[in-house]
From TrEMBL:
Transmembrane segments: none
One GO process term, biological-process aspect: nitrate assimilation
Domain NADH-rubredoxin oxidoreductase C-terminal: 317-384
Protein name listed in UniProt: NAD(P)/FAD-dependent oxidoreductase
Residue intervals of the BFD-like [2Fe-2S]-binding domain: 412-461, 477-526
Pfam families for the chain: Fer2_BFD (PF04324), NIR_SIR (PF01077), NIR_SIR_ferr (PF03460), Pyr_redox_2 (PF07992), Rubredoxin_C (PF18267)
Xref: Gene3D superfamilies: 3.30.390.30, BFD-like [2Fe-2S]-binding domain, FAD/NAD(P)-binding domain, Sulfite Reductase Hemoprotein, domain 1, Sulfite Reductase Hemoprotein,Domain 2
Residues given in the record as siroheme binding sites: C675
Domain Nitrite/Sulfite reductase ferredoxin-like: 551-614
């Protein structure tokens, strides 16, 4: 049988998902060719903000890697754009003069960012926020410039602003409307969101219309229609997107706002289809993922000539985490004369709920801070449910009736990937699935944002009954294996495995050499389990940890010497100044951790710089204790109750250099005024009259989390003891690259507290920590004294950068 030629223009989420659906139906029916303008395989555009924010590597947001295309016999032309379609001859032509014939053609060209036609919009320093290249551009700008302006207070603008804050920039968000995210939130929820984001450091200029971007050769600032001006080194336009229809227009395929399609995603041209953000269906153009995936299913069925439910449109809903804050909206979000509302507002918990009712039916909802009801409300809105049904279901849930049991099988559980309850139940029953990870691999549920994991777990429990054990749910450490972190650690201990290569071989890794996720993780677990025996495998570490300095965009490095507790002296400052002059340091910057960062040092000069500084490494690159931030304390401050500097220095000297699952930051404040920001650190200490409060699990980054009170103690010695036990317990039970904020939520504060309160366990943890500390070395000194390490690591050869 001769295969039909199927060509897909666009390598994004909607188009590739459609191919996945086609492959499920008829794996060998088509000879498939894909054109993608970007030099990347298919990736999750929703997660771009996490790449910008520094939480995630590009590899981690890849949905279908290069191997997937090869395994499915798909020919991918990446970095290549189709410039013309001959719909008569059924041929496409690319910008590299490549001609490819098709029997069926899918247009999935997505959307393009809307760039305001402002004077100065073409200046250097103006960018959109739409793809990986935009992220890379902003990251590069942040290393040289510090003042950013984001035009647009919608979701994309806020995510860009959060990322730029993480990159150390000051950020103004300019929005023309009266409040943020006006398409997804009502004013009450938007005002709560604004308050939360202002706490994170964002500055908002609302009801502002940008008139001009000014500057000589590059951006210097913005001027508004009211005459006000602000300074800016970087301008990010995040004012919206528009369907990318240029190839359709040029090729005579009918277009309105988007490429016109019917309920099976057919255009008005024979054998040409369109799906995703470029398509216009019944007057609607969708920019959210779930509708695009529903479209893909309808199109796949049509192309494969099987009976399939037509796509009839989607009730728009948005369930998001905006800079660490949960929000949800669906249907109508603002009241009018025809609607009534049920409202609940809890200022103390920071939650808000509004349910809109029209003709006794639930027509819309807005949730802020607590979005657990989102799926239920969306189901009721989609089904035109009477408000009494909502009230009855609430009563049933209060009485212990399972919410997922009441959902119909066609209910969408995973909005990101368009997976229904029925899809999940069928996969569990027919494929023998028993874990969330297996459901994700089989159905794509929870594959993107992960917000539906609790519902997936509930469906597993509902379907499997007593066979399901929530406590045993696992997630593989990477795609090279199906084993979880706990299974790998147990195997290393029980089988006495001593090297990463041995672990991969004995535990039958899918890939011979592992990947950038599992190699550093295995290296950490082995070092944690065998602190006295294991020889650190430097080749398994990220480049910054391998070279003990932070690599910059130009290939030079930054060096951060340790200043215990943020305290320095004239001798150290003279050394830093002398070294900076001698080695032409491009930038000296005081860090948020109260130290000095030295930028622009050549790789081969690093050992000489360290020798002449004669100071310990500050581990600004490490998965270990970074800093212990302190306030001036009782000796100088009129409000101080304790010696915060002394305790901070003791903590830093006690716990420096030893590896942890992720970076670990501490702070000591001398009084509840908390000038050292102890409430958002991995471990924070606050001095009070007669003792100390110890807080844990805080995070001042993207997923802002206030620390929880672990305990109260009377002496600094008790602080150090409890910190040692907590530090070691995190080392022994944390998943590699899991911050303590996530670890505390996973383990449970009450459980951690019970371990810390057990005298015997606390003593044992400190003993094991002491053992590991006996072999911890000062890395800069070790390299200075080793010609072998200097030759291996610092000869002028190109360093392969492993994304972190």
């Amino acid at each position: 049988m001769v295969k039909q030629k199927l060509v897909l223009i666009g390598n994004g989420m909607a188009g590739i998902r459609c191919l996945e659906e086609i492959l499920k139906i008829e794996k060998d029916a088509f000879e498939i060719t894909v054109f993608g303008s970007e030099n990347h395989p298919n990736y999750d555009r929703i997660q771009l903000s996490k790449v910008l924010q520094g939480d995630t590597a590009i590899e981690d947001i890849t949905l279908n890697d290069w191997n997937w295309y090869e395994q499915n016999n798909i020919l991918l032309y990446s970095g290549e754009t189709v410039t013309h379609i001959d719909t008569e001859k059924q041929i496409v032509l690319s910008d590299k003069n490549r001609e490819v014939a098709y029997d069926k053609l899918i247009l999935a060209t997505g959307s393009v960012p809307f760039i305001l036609p402002l004077p100065g919009a073409d200046k250097e320093g103006v960018t959109a926020f739409r793809n990986i290249e935009d992220c890379e551009k902003m990251i590069e700008y942040s290393k040289e410039y510090k003042k950013a302006a984001v035009i647009g207070g919608g979701l994309l603008g806020l995510e860009a602003a959060r990322g730029l804050l993480n990159l150390g920039m000051e950020v103004d968000v300019i929005h023309i409307a009266d409040y943020l995210m006006e398409r997804q939130l009502d004013e009450a929820a938007a005002n709560q969101l604004r308050k939360e984001l202002e706490k994170q450091g964002m500055n908002f200029l609302l009801r502002k219309q940008t008139q001009e971007i000014f500057g000589e050769n590059r951006v210097e600032g913005l001027r508004f229609s009211d005459g006000e001006e602000i300074k800016a080194d970087l301008v990010v336009m995040a004012v919206g997107i528009k369907p990318n229809t240029s190839i359709a227009v040029e090729s005579g395929i009918p277009v309105n706002r988007g490429i016109l399609v019917n309920d099976y995603m057919e255009t008005e041209i024979s054998n040409v289809f369109a799906v995703g953000e470029c398509a216009e269906h019944r007057g609607m153009v969708y920019g959210l993922v779930a509708p695009l995936y529903e479209q893909g299913k309808a199109l796949a069925g049509k192309i494969c000539s099987v009976d399939v439910r037509p796509y009839e449109g989607t009730v728009l809903s948005t369930k998001l985490k905006v800079s660490g804050v949960d929000v949800f909206s669906a249907g109508i979000i603002n009241e009018d004369e025809q609607t009534k509302a049920i409202k609940e507002f809890n200022d103390w918990k920071g939650t808000y709920k509004k349910i809109l009712i029209q003709d006794d039916k639930i027509s819309g909802a807005v949730l802020f801070g607590d979005t657990k009801e989102g799926t239920k409300l969306l189901s009721l809105i989609n089904n035109g449910a009477n408000v009494s049904e909502y009230l009855e279901k609430n009563e049933s849930n209060d009485a212990g009736v399972s919410f997922v049991a009441s959902l119909p099988n066609d209910e969408i559980i995973c909005g990101c990937n368009g997976v229904t309850k029925g899809d999940i139940v069928n996969a569990i029953e027919t494929q023998g699935l028993t874990s969330i990870d297996e459901v994700k691999g089989c159905t794509n549920a929870s594959r993107s944002c992960g917000g539906c994991k609790p519902l997936v777990a509930d469906i597993l429990e509902l379907t499997l009954g007593d066979e399901f054990n929530k406590a045993n749910q696992k997630e593989a450490i990477c795609s090279c294996t199906t084993l979880s972190r706990d299974e790998v650690v147990v195997a290393i201990r029980n089988m006495n495995l001593k090297t990463t290569r041995e672990v991969m071989n004995v535990l039958e890794w899918n890939t011979i050499d592992g990947c950038s996720k599992c190699k550093p993780a295995l290296n950490y677990y082995l070092g944690m389990i065998y602190p006295l025996e294991y020889e650190d495998e430097k080749e398994s570490r990220f480049v910054n940890e391998r070279l003990h300095a932070n690599i910059q965009k130009d290939g030079t490095f930054s060096v951060v010497p340790r200043m215990y507790g943020g305290v320095t002296n004239p001798e150290q400052l003279r050394k830093i100044a002398d070294v900076a002059e001698k080695y032409d340091v491009k930038l000296l910057k005081v860090t948020g951790g109260q130290r000095i960062d030295m930028f622009g040092i050549e790789k081969e000069d690093l050992p000489k710089v360290w020798a002449e500084l004669d100071m310990p490494s500050g581990y600004a690159y490490g998965k270990t204790l970074r800093t212990v931030k302190t306030c001036v304390g009782a000796e100088f401050c009129r409000f101080g109750t304790q010696d915060s500097i002394g305790l901070g220095i003791s903590l830093e000297k006690r716990f420096e250099r030893i590896s942890t699952p992720h970076k670990f930051k501490m702070a000591v404040s001398a009084c509840p005024r908390n000038c050292a920001e102890s409430g958002i650190k991995d471990l924070g200490v606050v001095g009070v009259d007669g003792g100390y409060q110890v807080y844990v699990g805080g995070n001042g980054g993207t997923d802002l989390r206030a620390a929880d009170l672990l305990c109260k103690v009377k002496t600094s010695e008790e602080v150090i003891e409890i910190t040692g036990a907590y530090f070691q317990y995190y080392r022994e039970t944390g998943i590699y690259l899991e911050r303590t904020s996530k670890w505390v939520e996973r383990m449970g504060l009450d459980h951690i507290r019970s371990v810390m309160e057990d005298d015997r366990k606390r003593l044992e943890l400190n003993i094991r920590l002491d053992e590991a500390l006996t072999v911890a070395q000062e890395p800069w000194k070790e390299i200075i004294e080793s010609e072998r390490l200097q030759k291996e690591l610092f000869e002028k050869v190109k360093v392969p950068v492993t994304a972190e």
